[in-house]
Each structure stands twice: as structure tokens, then as C-alpha cells.
Amino acid sequence: MRTIDTSVLIVGAGPAGLTATALLARSGVQTITVTKYGGTANSPRAHITNQRSGEVFRDLGIEDRVAALATPHHLMGNNVWATSFTGQEIARLMTWGAGIERNADYQASSPSQMCNAPQHILEPVILEAARESGADIRFATELVAISQDEDGVLATVRERTTGSEYAIRAQYVIGADGGRSTVATRLGFTFDGESGLGAAVNVWLEADLTPYTAHRPGTLYWMCQPGNDYWVGSGTFICVKPWTEWVMLFMYDPADGEPDISEEAMLARARTTIGDPEVAVRIKAVSRWEINHLVAAEYRKGRAFLVGDAAHRHPPANGLGSNTSIQDSYNLAWKLAAVVHGQAGPELLDSYDAERRPVGKQVVDRAMKSVADMLPISQALGFRPGQSAEEGWASLAEVFADSDAAQQRRTALKQAVALQNYQFNSHGVEMGQRYDSGAVIDDGTPYPPFERDPELYYHPTTHPGAYLPHAWLQHGTQRLSTLDLAGRGSFSLITGVGGEPWLDAAKKMAAEYRIDLPAHSVGARCAYDDVYGDWADLREITDHGCLLIRPDRHIAWRSHDLPADPEQALREALDRILARP
Ligand code: FDA
Where are the alpha helices (DSSP H) in 11-137? Predict the structure, then answer.
């Protein structure tokens, strides 16, 4: 069997694998990406694209391309609960930071906006970025066997069009091969949690629902039909393309048997939940999926790493699946690049598990809790499994009646809807990842205390381990974010007025360690002018201090002021973070 050598083998070309491929290829790391199917995702699946993912795309230079194809943030806001599109509206909630109450939080925390970018539209954009950096991506190429020893990994792949097999030998492998990961299974990764906790059907369809949605634009329309067959309702419509393309999602209990998912049955369900028999409906695809609550017990085994759904499997509540997958790769790629290029010791790679596994655990737990937290809506409406349509309609009528009892039920419904903020405005969960590992140097100060609910609200801080806070700056006539001064595969440094010794130190260290280490003065009338004074409020260091920022924009180390020997201080910090001998 012929054998090809490479530095990093990436298995899978979903959001996680494509992001890892694009980032590594841009860093000049030799990679081969193999993926089982003949192309990128052939259905919408993940769609909520949060600000942290937007910032990764910004770093890759593709944020504008994604935005051009996605449904913009201002059309994402309304979460509507109704008996059907033509039927009675039950409740509405402004989501994803689009409501007045939360919009400022979202705007203030990032240069990137959330958008609705279905996976089949998003993946080709990341693929294009990877290809522009010269990545070697092999479609219809399935991993069939893999082993590893101290020196590397050896994989056998099969070309699905010809059936021929060949071997790939690599220094490292990234398992980005989704919820049924062959890398995880073959290399003996174990998982904590439970699987098979429920099931759902996705029906991708075309139907022009403009008359029922354009006046209340949103991403999710929950059709709760009285007498419905399961508590989540009779069909949640996910906007794929405003307002003509949708995914109709419905849950079922496998214990009651598998549902009829014939085209006829799906058309009937779509027509009932739309409520207008005149609307033409065309089914494009039907698929089933399972609810799992699993996270890998380790994200790294020797030379193998799991990213994305290969590492964490959970329901789509909170829209964190592909976002977390993209962000796993953002964390891992620069570390692998530094090690492969000989700029860092292999111990740096230990920080991947230490940093991303707690995030994976938080995400699967949050998503699972959000699913359970939808139950109070059904309860407030008095909807129960097995109830007749008449009973359901009567119960609903009571909610909106003119009586004291009805008023109490409306209060219960309002509270149940407010609970959904933990799913749809969970800004702290989306943005607030903080790392504690060997790739972060704690400065001995405590994190500032949370002033608001840490799940709902993002608290920016420059404490080592946190993500670089965003502030708008002026550079000549250009407006840019502090986040634009970091990333692109290299460490960077930010200081303030009078921080020139740090700039000199960074230049010397970059030359000595043969790394890119751009350093910037950010402050009042500096090259990067803090014209609004926002950065002064966020930075938590003096003008003479500095922040050392990792390529994934997390703070690696900070110095509150100027030490006697800034070059030595910076050297010690870099040596520790990069695990240099
Ligand atoms: P993904 O599964 O996308 O890709 C796996 C890749 O591995 C594929 O390219 C496949 O070809 C390849 N592969 C598999 N086995 C292989 C083998 N043996 N050899 C070679 N290649 C192999 N997420 C989110 O963030 N927001 C959201 O709103 C939603 N909504 C949503 C709705 C629904 C209905 C579902 C089912 C899921 C979501 N998700 C989501 C979750 C999201 O779809 C999921 O988290 C991501 O696709 C995970 O991306 P990955 O790249 O990890 O795996």
C-alpha cells in the first residue's frame, strides 16, 4: 500500500475540520484533510452563528463573505410561539441580542454580529478560505483504520469512488469526524454522559411564508398545536432563507415507535402547522437525529485530538454545536502550528484538553438544560401528551380568558418564556470562555466578580485566560477593533501611552525566537487611538503595562506596569507559555 507523509492529518470537513484546515494551512503547516462524503454539508443543520465564530471568520478574512450569504442579525430576532403560522400567537421573545434590552450588550462586546448561516451555505466559504491557503482536501475519502505510536499516527483511508486504499503517516491527527467519530472509536476515546435521550426529524422544505413572517422576522417559529403529539410542539420552523426556505423540526419519542416520514406525511404535517392550505410546499430532504448528552472524557490521546461533535454531542438548543466546533479548532490550530514549526514544546498541546473540555462540558449541560427548560411552556399552556385537540384548545382558551385564574396562567406563561433567555440570549455562555492551563500565566489577582448572571451576560476582562475585550479604535481614518490587533496565527502585544519599551522588547523577542509578535500602542492619541476611551475602561492595566495575547485572542499573560526589564519579563512569559526548554 502506498504511504503519504504529512504533518497533520485532519479527518472530517464539517465546520470543525474545515476551520482547522484553513487555520493550519494559513500557518504554513503541511496538512491532509480527508472527508467521507463527496462534498460539504448537503443540508442546513447548524445555522446560528455566534459572535465568537464571526471573530474567527474575521481572523480568516472571510467574515464579509459569510455575512453576504447569511440572514443578517436584524432579521433574526423574533422567537414566535403560535398554534400555526395563520393561527393564534401565544408568545414572542426577542432573541440573539436583537431585542432592545440586550442589543447593547451584544454590540458592545464584539466587532462581529451574530447571523443565521445554515451549514450548507457556511461550509463552502470556509472551504474556499482553506483552498486559498493551499490546503489539500480530499473528498469521498474515508478513514477506515488508524493507530498511533510515540512517533506519529498511521491511518488507512479508502477512496470511495474507486475503493482503493492508501496510508497516511502524520505527526498528529485531528478527529473532526462528527458524532460517529471513527478516530474516537478506533483510538479508544471514552465519553461521559448519556445517548439516545430522544429523537427528532428535520424536514428541509420550500414554502413562501412571507405573509406570516415578514412582519415578525425571526429564526425560530414554534408551532404548538393543541393535541400535539409531543411536548415540544408539532413543528418548529427554522428559517433557512427568509421567508421561503425552512427546516421543519419535530421531536418524537422512539418508545412510541418510529414516525411515518414519507413525503406525504411530511407534507401533511407542514400544511397543518402552516395553517394555510394554499401555500405550496416542496420537501427537499428529510432526516432523523438523536439527542445525546456526551462529552469526551479526554480531548487528547497521545498524538490524536478530538474537535467538534467528535468531542461533544448535544441537542441544538442554544445553537452552540458548530460554534463550539469552530472554536475548538481555533484553540488547537495555533498550538499544533507552534509545535510543528518547532516554536513550542509538545507540552503546549496538553492545554487543549485543559481549556476546551470544560467548555464542552458546559455546552452539553447548558443545551440539555435548555431542552428541559422548554417544558414549562407546554405546562403553562396546559398541553399534555395524549390530550385531545379539543382539550388542548379549551386549555389554551383559558389562558387568554378574562379571569383571575387566567391571569395567573398568563403569568406562568410569561415566566416560562422568560426562562428561554437562557437558551436564546445566553450571551455569557456564547462569549465568556475562560481558560486555566499551562498556556496561561495567572497574575495572582482574582477575576473581577460577576456583576450579572454569568450565563446571560458576558463579562469582559483582561485577566489571563480570558478573551481579549473588544473596543473600537481609530487608526488614521480606519475604525478597527482591539480584536483586529490580535490573531492571524501569531502572538501579539498591546501596551499604552509610554509603553514603548514593550514594543522594543517584542521586536527583540520576535527576532530571537523567529516568531511574529506584532506589538501596538493603544491609548489616547496613540497609533491605535482609544478615541472613545472605552479601552481605558476595559484594560485593567496601567498605560505602561502590557497584555500578551495568544493567537486565539485569549490573554496569555499581563503586566500591570512596566517592570525594570520588560524584555526579560516577556521572555519568561513566552518561555512558559510555549513550553520552551
Ligand atoms: P460534522 O458532523 O459537521 O462533520 C463531520 C465530518 O466528518 C463530515 O465532513 C464527514 O464527512 C466526516 N467524516 C465522518 N466520518 C468520517 C470518516 N470515517 N472518514 C472521513 N471523514 C469522516 N449547531 C450550532 O452551532 N448552531 C445551530 O443552530 C445548530 N443547529 C442544529 C440543528 C440540527 C437539527 C442539528 C442536527 C444540529 C445542529 N447543530 C447546530 C449542530 C451542528 O450541526 C454540529 O454541531 C456540527 O455540524 C458539528 O461540526 P463538526 O465539524 O464537528 O462535525
Answer: 15-26, 51-60, 63-69, 100-109, 119-132
